[in-house]
Write a structure and sequence with these properties.
Length: about 325
């Protein structure tokens, strides 16, 4: 098993799958200065991948390219075996089809050098159900990105029942090396973390549209010009922590907790037990660290102003 320190020795990455997500990963790794070997069975894979990378390159250039970064470092191979040859890391981004994922991961595992971590970009399947056909499943992990992978920093990393802890640790360290914000999950959760939160909002939005309660534009505006402006700074939990004023989350839950049972949404609310209340309060306090409510308010306000200015400039072109 490779030591975490070996993440710094990787100079070649294999990307299997050249769709939107796979192409986004290719662009990201190229911008980070890696040599990228890509493979996709589609006959037009090379042309499609080139278009995807070309479209992403201006944004990546604006963000700042790593030393040696170049689109010329991309090689589209004729076979899967050629793609993984000499690669220090493999990112699989095939379509969301369980049987396809199971076979492809087994095929990747069979031709990839021992000790090289293989990550799947899956957005819905757990590694436990995908790694069943692989001969060395201990090195297979989920590395779930968000579209577009070359701009959105979040990656959720989690292994399956047959995955070894070292592989999860190594993958997390590698993603951090390439500029990602990593959530290393302790356990597999259907839909992972961010997708679960996204899905709840999406489901409720569809309910409102279906019932004539809100238009698509109203829903989008409700987020972009409402809570969406606060979330980049603190996310939903610390946002509600601030909503409790000087009392923080404890006051928020004690005061507004009963409204969780109000029939606002179509989602069942959890019972607000003392254990749940305390866990949420403690989580907010830990996340806030040494920052007081006043510190967090100032941080939030600065962030919202900066976001509004940036979005305004972007919309004006």
């Amino acid at each position: 098993m490779p030591d975490v320190s070996t993440v710094d020795t990787v100079d070649t990455v294999a990307c299997v799958g050249a769709g939107v997500i796979g192409g986004g990963w290719v662009a990201h790794f190229l911008a980070q200065g890696f040599r990228v070997q890509a493979w996709d069975p589609a006959p037009d894979a090379a042309a499609k991948l080139t278009r995807l990378v070309d479209a992403a390159w201006p944004a990546l250039t604006s963000l700042g390219l790593a030393e040696g970064a170049s689109r010329d470092n991309l090689i589209v191979t004729a076979t899967l075996a050629e793609a993984v040859e000499g690669a220090g890391f493999v990112q699989e981004s095939a379509p969301e089809d369980l049987a396809l994922k199971q076979k492809l991961l087994a095929d990747i595992d069979a031709v990839t050098a021992a000790g090289v971590v293989v990550a799947s970009s899956t957005s819905g399947y757990g590694m436990t159900e995908m790694q069943v056909a692989a001969k060395t499943p201990e090195r297979l992990v989920v590395g779930h990105p968000f579209n577009p992978p070359y701009l959105i920093p979040l990656v959720e990393v989690v292994g399956g029942k047959l995955t070894s802890p070292w592989a999860v640790e190594w993958a997390s360290a590698f993603y951090r090396r390439v500029g990602k914000t990593v959530i290393t999950m302790d356990d597999e959760v259907p839909g992972f973390i961010a997708n679960r939160l996204q899905e709840a909002l999406w489901r409720e939005a569809l309910h409102m549209v279906a019932n004539g309660e809100a238009t698509v534009e109203q829903i989008d505006t409700a987020i972009t010009d409402g809570p969406g402006l606060r979330w980049p700074a603190h996310g939903p939990m610390l946002t509600f922590h601030l909503a409790g004023g000087e009392g923080g989350m404890a006051h928020m839950l004690d005061h507004f907790g009963p409204s969780l049972k109000s029939p606002w949404t179509r989602l069942d609310a959890p019972e607000l037990t003392k254990k749940l209340r305390d866990a949420v309060v403690e989580g907010c306090e830990e996340e806030a660290g040494e920052r007081t409510i006043a510190d967090l308010v100032a941080e939030r306000d600065r962030a919202i102003i900066a976001i509004q200015e940036a979005v305004g400039r972007a919309r004006r072109g």
